[in-house]
Amino acid sequence: MRAARGLWAALALLLLPAGSRALRDGECEVCVTFLGRFYQSLKDNDVEFTPASIEKELLKTCKEAKGKENRLCYYVGATSDAATKIINEVSKPMSHHIPVEKICEKLKKKDSQICELKYEKQIDLSTADLRKLRVKELRRILDDWGEACKGCAEKSDFIRRIHELMPKYAPRAAGARADL
To answer: Checking phi first, is residue 77 left (phi over 0); if not, alpha (psi -120 to 50) or beta?
Structure first.
């Protein structure tokens, strides 16, 4: 009797949906977004869906990745300085067209840091008061644009540099600002 009850309990656990294993909304944000864009670029460029060709393209894409996406590439082993190589955990499932959410779920089991990556919130330059931002945030704006502020010692120097470059990198924001 006790054995039958245990058997039923084990069967019930197997049949119940494994909600704890599935990604929650917003979890693995960087992984899902980056791999989703990567998968779409493979389809757009008519790349052959073999693990070797996907791995080659991923290495190429990761060379150009910045910020959190570069950190994801590091965790997966797609950068030259990576200590581990679990790149095949991306290339093999992707060659079988497995959804990126499932790939990220499996990567999370291998390395939980992958799903801890989150994009930093974007600053709306058309409404933000640059004088109220921290120097770190002003630097990040310039870094996102691929620009530097050589010789900048004070906050006002960073703000001046952002104002100079805003028409080039954020023309809508530059047009919407009244303080220029």
So the answer is: left
| Contact (CB, 8 A) for 106 and 81 | no
Nearest to 31 by CA among 78, 60, 73, 59: 73
Concatenate the DSSP letters of all residues of 51-111 into one string.
Answer: HHHHHHHHHHHHHH--THHHHHHHHHT-STT-S---THHHHHHHHTT--HHHHHHHHHHH-
CB neighbours of residue 75 within 10 Å: 24
SS3 174: helix
Q: How far apart are CA 143 and CA 166, in angstroms?
A: 13
Mean pLDDT taken over the chain: 85
Dihedral of CA atoms 55, 29, 117, 134 in degrees, nearest 10, equals 130
CB 126 within 8 A of CB 176: yes
**pLDDT tens digit sequence for 58-110:** 999 999 998 899 999 999 999 999 888 999 999 999 999 999 999 999 999 99
Token pair in block for residue 2: 């006790």
